[in-house]
Design a protein that fits this description.
This protein has 575 residues and is of the alpha/beta class. The protein folds into three domains: 2-22 and 148-250, Phosphohistidine domain (Glucose Oxidase, domain 1); 36-141, PtsI, HPr-binding domain (Enzyme I, Chain A, domain 2); 258-545, TIM Barrel, CATH 3.20.20.60. The chain contains 23 helices and 16 strands. The mean pLDDT is 91. The chain binds phosphoenolpyruvate and magnesium ion (MG).
Length: 575
């Protein structure tokens, strides 16, 4: 038996077999081909080999898990046998390019087409095509392909790191949790684990060395503990804990329909963070009051080229229609930092988190930015859209972004396209400079949303991806509390509402302080919404506010945490 410790990033307990991921290198060069017939034979051989592999996996899944679970592999086989797709790849080869490039071009086109359809079945087809073409590419390149679509038993993924796009592809039916060597509480794979609502532990440093493929693993995502090859007794204890956790989650369901209101009648909004249109379902099924952050960069990931205006329009429209009149805050593209786009030539930077990311990049590449703005404006008539810009450091940046938006609005109106007249325009406060002059920004913004993941990283100068400095992720650090207070007061002075969409918004210890300070909107992973609503229902804002002076005298995050646990968690209507 072996016990490992890491950073607890997504609650819950998983008990399953270890699945160690080694990503294959599927890179290839586009080249010209003279003998196109020979190239087509190469393609057909790859298809035959991929089919044999898939049939074997499907048969295994059928015996082990039944017809329903085997259906996914049947769908993959159908893609491989699709004459239309094969014909198009062969036509591309006839133009004189190698099979790898032809396959890549055609599958990307199909994936793009299916992904934007407003139909879950079609979206699943896009995922099928993606998996199949990767498998086929591996065959063409003679590379071993440990792809997770052939998972046919419940596993816990063990990896160096999971890129956001890898995480987004994980199939929840089989992936019960994940463990990584690197990362911190606010790295994007951690955020996605919470969005998917699967337990996860990151930053273990050595998990890929210590855990063997196929070992039995217990993962406690609430405590950051991983136990490998546990005794029967320990396994039984965790099975019980898993049951208790699941029962508690069920109990919270009664808060689904209730308003988000404190014990003394103060209304707040508890919203969900999403990364793609499908995530809206979890926000709604957890009773979210709105979407407080749509991280649109995920629409740009896991593909080979920029999404078109039309593709984006459909994605935004889908979200807005599903959310109906509920507020939906869409953040414009926040790429850079730990989120790269393979197809966008981004220079290697010494300090990517301090570099050319988010609004900085968009204000440079205005063609790309304007495409997104147009898609958003066109979608605005389908719901209650609010737009916010990420990583604003100066008023000039904010004004410039607003100006571009206004120009696109005028262009659309001139061409007769309908645009909502009530879109609120806000910004994220995630850089200390903007927090300090939040009142100035609030004069020109309709709302502010505090992005604590970055605000903490920049204030404490601690890379949010680096597990060695993860102890500096301190949401209760007095400096952070002061900055948050400045932002809330600055916004309120100008009569504007202020939200928080960083992870701190769903943090049990921070919530009483944020409520006392008058935060208007709390936006978090969908899986935290009900818990937060239940917590706020027990708290009296007025009584909490009486403790603020004391809290702001405290000197360390630890002191704040102790104070809250001792005095504030129990302030409720009974007192
Ligand atoms: C943040 O920085 O708090 C935030 C919400 O943005 P992201 O985590 O996407 O950088
Ligand atoms: Mg951020």
């Amino acid at each position: 038996m072996l016990e490992l410790k890491g950073i607890a990033v997504s609650n819950g307990i998983a008990i399953a077999t270890a699945y160690c991921i080694i990503e294959p290198d599927l890179s290839f060069e586009k080249s010209s081909i003279q003998d196109t017939d020979k190239e087509k034979v190469r393609l057909r051989n790859a298809i035959v080999n991929a089919k044999v592999e898939l049939e074997e996996i499907r048969n295994q899944a059928k015996t082990k898990l039944g017809d329903e679970k085997a259906a996914i592999f049947q769908a993959h086989l159908l893609v491989l046998e699709d004459p239309e797709m094969l014909g198009m790849i062969e036509s591309k080869i006839d133009e004189g390019i190698n099979a790898e490039s032809a396959l890549d071009e055609i599958s990307t086109m199909f994936i793009g087409m299916f992904e934007t359809m407003n139909n879950d079945y079609m979206k699943e087809r896009a995922a099928d095509i993606r998996d199949v073409s990767k498998r086929l590419l591996a065959k063409l390149l003679n590379v071993e392909f440990p792809d997770y679509s052939h998972l046919n038993e419940e596993v816990i993924i063990i990896a160096e790191d999971l890129t956001p796009s890898m995480t987004a592809q994980l199939n929840k039916t089989y992936v019960k949790g994940f463990v990584t060597n690197i990362g911190g509480r606010t790295s994007h794979s951690a955020i996605l684990a919470r969005t998917m609502d699967i337990p996860a532990v990151v930053g273990t440093k050595t998990a890929t060395n210590d855990i063997l493929h196929g070992a039995s693993v217990i993962l406690d995502g609430s405590k950051g503990v991983i136990i490998v090859d546990a005794s029967d007794e320990i396994t039984a204890t965790y099975q019980l804990a898993q049951q208790v956790y699941n029962d508690e989650r069920k109990l919270l369901e009664r808060y689904k329909e209730s308003p988000s209101v404190s014990a003394d009648g103060y209304h707040v909004e508890i919203a969900g963070n999403i990364g793609k249109p499908a995530d809206v379902e979890a926000v709604l099924s957890n009773g979210g009051d709105g979407v407080g952050l749509f991280r649109t960069e995920f629409l740009y990931m896991d593909r080979e080229e920029l999404p078109t205006e039309e593709e984006q329009f459909i994605a935004y429209k889908t979200v807005l229609e599903k959310m109906k009149e509920k507020p939906t805050v869409v953040r414009t593209l926040d790429i850079g930092g730990d989120k790269e786009l393979s197809y966008l030539k981004m220079d290697k930077e010494m300090n990517p988190f301090l570099g050319h990311r988010a609004i900085r990049l968009c204000l440079d590449d205005t063609k790309m930015f304007r495409t997104q703005l147009r898609a958003l404006l066109r979608a605005s008539v389908y719901g209650n859209l609010k737009i916010m810009f990420p990583m604003i450091a100066t008023l000039e940046e904010f004004r410039q972004a607003k100006e571009l938006l206004e120009e696109e609005r005028q262009n659309l109106l001139v061409s007769g396209v309908k645009v909502s007249h009530t879109i609120e325009i806000g910004m994220m406060v995630e850089i200390p400079s903007s927090a300090v002059i939040a009142d100035k920004f609030a004069e020109e913004a309709d709302f502010l949303s505090i992005g604590t993941n970055d605000l903490i990283q920049y204030t404490l100068a601690a890379d949010r991806m680096n597990e060695k400095v993860s102890y500096l992720y301190q949401p209760y650090h007095p400096a952070i509390l002061r900055l948050v207070k400045m932002v809330i007061e600055g916004a309120h002075k100008e009569g504007k509402w202020v939200g928080m969409c960083g992870e701190m918004a769903g943090d049990e210890v921070a919530i009483p302080i944020l409520l006392a300070l008058g935060l208007d909107e709390f936006s978090m992973s969908a899986s935290s919404i009900l818990h937060t609503r239940a917590q706020i229902a027990q708290l009296s804002k007025e009584q909490l506010a009486q403790h603020l002076d004391e809290i702001f005298k405290l000197k360390t995050a630890n002191e704040v945490s102790k104070y809250v646990k001792l005095h504030l968690s129990s302030i409720n209507k009974q007192q």
